Amino acid sequence: MDEKIIGKCIKCGGNIIEKEKYYVCENRKAIKDENGNWHTEGCDFIVFKDTFRRFGKNKLTVKEMKKFLKEKEVVVELVSKNGNNYKKYAIFDEKWNIKIDFDTNVENVKKEKPVKEENLTESAEDTLTFHI
Ligand SMILES: [Zn+2]
Asked: What's the gap in Å between 15 CA and the centre of ligand 1?
């Protein structure tokens, strides 16, 4: 099987290998116990390529994954239920390995969308509070 190393594991520093459907740490071992149940040992870092499918992103690309492994975050483009594209940060998470940070806006997307005047007042207040 053609396996490619695409970066270093955020959790243990091992190599991250690209497989057909996921990116996985070389130190993640799947072991079958005496009852025939599978469990994993070692590092638990694995990210499925379709991990954000429910947010409208069918595949996390190698390029995105490489950036994520280096910087612990990467901007990804998602599609809302209404069919609108929007961008969010995918960030490192101890439990899920990668997750969407819905609380943080990606700035260059904000600029593309016209803001209503009433919203402007609100965001100005937000900014003021933030600086205090
Ligand atoms: Zn690892």
From this structure: 7
Q: For 66-93, how does the pLDDT look when each residue is reduced to its tens digit (9 = 90+)?
A: 999 999 999 999 999 999 999 999 999 9
Nearest to 71 by CA among 5, 10, 6: 10
Residue positions counted in the chain: 132
- Chain-centroid distance of CA 68 in Å reads 7
Residue 92 bridge partners (DSSP): 98
- CA of 11 relative to ligand 1 center, distance in Å: 5
Return the structure tokens found at 37.
Answer: 């149940």
Closest CA to 86 of 62, 112, 47: 112
Find the DSSP H helices in the chain. Answer: 62-71, 107-112, 117-131
CA of 125 to the centre of ligand 1 (A): 43
Contact indicator for 16, 69 with CB cutoff of 8 Å: yes
Is the pLDDT at 109 greater than 70, yes or no? Answer: no
- Would you say 52 and 90 are in contact if contact means Cβ atoms under 8 Å apart? yes
pTM: 0.75
Tokens read off for 85: 């594209």
